[in-house]
Design goal:
This protein is of the alpha+beta class. It has 2 domains: about 60 residues, Ribosomal Protein L9, domain 1 (3-Layer(aba) Sandwich); about 80 residues, Ribosomal protein L9, C-terminal domain (Ribosomal Protein L9, domain 2, Roll), CATH 3.10.430. About 35% of the residues lie in helices and about 30% in strands. The protein contains 3 helices and 9 strands. The strands form 3 sheets. Strands 4-9-8-6 form a 4-stranded mixed beta sheet. The chain has a 3-stranded antiparallel beta sheet with strand order 2-1-3, sandwiched between helices. Strands 5-7 form a two-stranded antiparallel ribbon. A hairpin with a 5-residue loop joins strand 8 and strand 9. The longest helix has about 30 residues. It is elongated.
């Protein structure tokens, strides 16, 4: 029996996969629980069309992310922080502050999509990775200066 999965199932498949299962497993567990639907010819056609439309939307979103990545690439963003006379920062610079700087510059990036390679506890230049899409990542430079 072939079924179309509605969610990920360990050791069976991922969401939207068409998998073959034993009749009893499909009829008595997967379909009644709402985890899968029967892969009839009409359901397969609907599934194929949905995948095609989703791929088109994903391609559009990916192209937009690549455009933003090109504009971000090579730019240096300045983050202000309170620091001592020796250059040590009181506290540290985190992704929240970097996201705020990016928002002021006109780029909307969530803080959870920004990752720092090292802790920022001193003044200087640092690198961060911004994940714009599942397949699009860009490195940005951050310069931490005293306020």
């Amino acid at each position: 029996m072939e079924v179309i999965l509605k969610e990920d199932i360990a050791n069976l498949g991922h969401k939207n996969d068409i998998v073959s299962v034993k009749n009893g497993y499909g009829r008595n567990y997967l379909i009644p629980q709402g985890i899968a639907i029967l892969a009839s010819p009409s359901a397969k056609k609907v599934h194929a069309e949905n995948l095609k439309q989703r791929a088109h939307k994903e391609e559009k979103i990916k192209n937009e992310a690549e455009g933003v990545a090109k504009t971000l690439e090579g730019k240096v963003f300045t983050v202000g922080a309170k620091a001592s006379s020796t250059g040590k920062i009181f506290g540290s610079v985190n992704t929240i502050q970097i996201a705020e700087v990016l928002t002021k510059e006109g780029f909307t990036v969530e803080r959870k999509n920004i990752s720092l390679k090292e802790d920022v506890k001193e003044l200087g230049k640092y690198a961060a990775t911004v994940k714009l899409h599942r397949e699009v990542k860009v490195e940005i430079s951050i310069e931490v200066v005293a306020e």
